[in-house]
Amino acid sequence: MAEVVLSGLGKVYVDGTRAVADLDLEIRDGEFLVLVGPSGCGKTTALRMIAGLESVSEGSIRIGPQVVNEVPSRDRDVAMVFQSYALYPHLNVYDNIAFGLTLRKLPKKEIDRRVREVAEVLELHEHLERKPRNLSGGQRQRVAMGRAIVRAPQAFLMDEPLSNLDAKLRVQMRAQIARIQRDLGVTTVYVTHDQTEAMTLGDRVAVMKRGVLQQVGPPQELYDRPVNLFVAGFIGSPGMNLVTARLDRDDDGHHWVTVGSDALLLPESVLLARPALAGYAGRDVVLGIRPEDMEDAALADAQEGSILHSVADLVEAMGSDVLVHFPVDAAPVVTDDTKALAEDDGTADLPKGSGVVLVGRFSPRTHIYEGQPVAAWVDTSRLHFFDPDTGLSVWTTSGELE
Amino acid sequence: MTVVEVSVTGAPRRGVLSRVVSRLGNGVVQVGLALVALFWLVPVFGLLIASLRDEASNTASGWWTIFTAPTSLTLSNYADLVGNSTVLRSFLNTVYIAVPSTVLVVVISALAAYGLAWIEFPGRLWLTTLVVGLLVMPIQVALIPVAKLFGSLGLFGTITGVVLFHVAFGLPFAIFLLRNFFAGIPRDLVEAARMDGAREWVIFRRVVLPIAKPAIASLTIFQFLWVWNDLLVALVFADQDSAPITVALRAQLRQFGTNIDLLSTGAFLSMIVPLAVFLAFQRYFVQGVLAGSTK
Ligand SMILES: Nc1ncnc2c1ncn2[C@@H]1O[C@H](COP(=O)(O)OP(=O)(O)OP(=O)(O)O)[C@@H](O)[C@H]1O
Ligand SMILES: [Mg+2]
């Protein structure tokens, strides 16, 4: 087990495509780091460079004490789980798992012991004689895991290992991967574009956009304190609502943020946490509201100054909660970040009406129906603010974390 | 010959009409296949009967008359053939030519194809293009220059010379075929082996070759048949002592004209070997070797 340190890592493919730029990332010994981002942002490329399957254009990769830029994959002592599983089709489950060990010339007895132990953990012991083509998707996935685990490598690299499973299996396997990684304590880099996987699995999550690392931190930190619009919009599901709003300071020294025809009063705590926000008084800011920070005003003991009024556009009952979509008369946010997010959602090409549709996550006790007026209470202490030009979070100064 | 069975399982809930159509379709396919098989089998069978009849009855009547007037069949032709040292030696020559030509082509082309498909080196694309380009080179243009070259090297009229020529002209197609097959193996699979600690040689031996069995088996049969049945190359490069059976049978034909008994026996022998090779390898033609490896 070892730490994996990427310094100034960059990749330019032969055709000139820049896939990764100046990536600095320190993955601690035993840590589970999730690399997340929209399609094409360079996650796989970064992972393949760590694996040694792709040459390094710039910077360096260190595994444990050794810089491995020029070390071939087979000598890096890391194991990879492929999205496609990549099982050897002509070998049975036992031999698939044992393959790496036989190449290391371990004694037969030792190999046998380790393979059976791993098969037991992954509940594959009844299928050891089967060929991959006779296994279910979930079993194949577990064989792929077994092949990595049995080698007890310095690090696990996993590239969307669950994306070929159906939703239910994915949740099961997610839990299993988390458990196994915790038990073995092997440093793990896990690539996904599913933010739920990222949040649930990662000790820390690194968010990438177009080859550039945006933010890295524990899941809760990314959720609570995203550094920019991109991270804010990417983490969380449904995504954070983003609208252009105007910040004003009244004669009593209170700060109000105007969304369409409603104004929200900012509590003191928000301004204390974000001193730089005062500087935006009299200007437009980007306001971010998480769906889960809203509630049906009728159920929330709401005060004026924390309510948005509109008409319900769409009501989606999810069982545990109800998603209410409602338009507000405010300008949408169009920046580089929101464009990247829209591309990821596949909503980039949809026609944009005037105004913005917000999504609120209400309690199932709500009695709102489509076409009826909505009064949405907003937890104003949890509002997010971003600079409309740079897209950076507004904290102390220009959006830097203190 | 293999019988192709068209399975009709897994059609329980379709309409009667579509089932009838599919039954009929299957029937048509099977009748068609039977006809094709018959077309191929009749001459082979005729050859076999002719080789089992003595010279007198062969000249007196056609082989099909055995159905109406069964004459006694005899193995004497085969005995004669074994006694005929020219034919026997030429039969052995064919083996000495065909086996090394096949083995060398398969081994060399498999190694080359792996390199072209999976090892990155400068000029790889050019080399691949060159190999494909060589495919269009007709044998005929090389006969005379190579004959001259063999003459000065002392290879003319030797089995080694014939083998070398067959190997040289078998390789482009063989490399092309195998490279394409190897390149079609999912990249993840090769990379998984690399991550598992395998060197190129191990990947070749333990991952690529087992998966490529069907391609290798096809290539082996093609190459073997081609060399076994070759007349042109042997006519040019072999002398009396190194002549394969194709050349020897042709010489017999000129000598006696009507010695159908000896000819049919030799031809049948010369045909039965490739057939045996085909049957030996046909179990490797299993479809879907890659099933289950990815996704
Ligand atoms: N071999 C290659 N040659 C040229 N460009 C490449 C190559 N492989 C990937 N790219 C490009 O590099 C960028 C990053 O690709 P990468 O596969 O790392 O993305 P990703 O984040 O893994 O995406 P996904 O979530 O879709 O798997 C993309 O723009 C892609 O088109
Ligand atoms: Mg990828």
TrEMBL record, chain A:
SMART domains xref list: AAA
GO molecular function, one term: ABC-type transporter activity
Keyword Signal (UniProt): no
Family annotation (InterPro entries): AAA+_ATPase (IPR003593), ABC_transporter-like_ATP-bd (IPR003439), ABC_transporter-like_CS (IPR017871), ABC_transpr_MalK-like (IPR015855), ABC_transpr_MalK/UgpC-like (IPR047641), Mo/tungstate-bd_C_term_dom (IPR008995), NA-bd_OB-fold (IPR012340), OB_MalK-like (IPR040582)
Lineage start: Bacteria, Bacillati, Actinomycetota, Actinomycetes, Pseudonocardiales
Keyword rRNA-binding: no
NCBIfam families per the UniProt record, alphabetical: PRK11650.1
Domain ABC transporter: 4-235
Native species: Saccharothrix tamanrassetensis
PROSITE patterns linked: ABC_TRANSPORTER_1 (PS00211), ABC_TRANSPORTER_2 (PS50893)
GO CC, one annotated term: ATP-binding cassette (ABC) transporter complex, substrate-binding subunit-containing
Name of the protein: Multiple sugar transport system ATP-binding protein
Keywords from the named record: ATP-binding, Cell membrane, Membrane, Nucleotide-binding, Sugar transport, Translocase, Transport
Source taxon at top rank: Bacteria
Protein's GO biological process: carbohydrate transport
TrEMBL record, chain B:
InterPro entries the record matches: MetI-like, MetI-like_sf
UniProt-annotated location(s): Cell membrane
Main localization category: membrane
Pfam families: BPD_transp_1
GO terms classed as biological process: transmembrane transport
Keywords in alphabetical order: Cell membrane, Membrane, Transmembrane, Transmembrane helix, Transport
Domain of life where this protein originates: Bacteria
Domain ABC transmembrane type-1: 91-281
PANTHER family linked: ABC TRANSPORTER PERMEASE PROTEIN MG189-RELATED-RELATED, OSMOPROTECTIVE COMPOUNDS UPTAKE PERMEASE PROTEIN GGTD
Family: Belongs to the binding-protein-dependent transport system permease family.
Designated name of the protein: Alpha-glucoside transport system permease protein
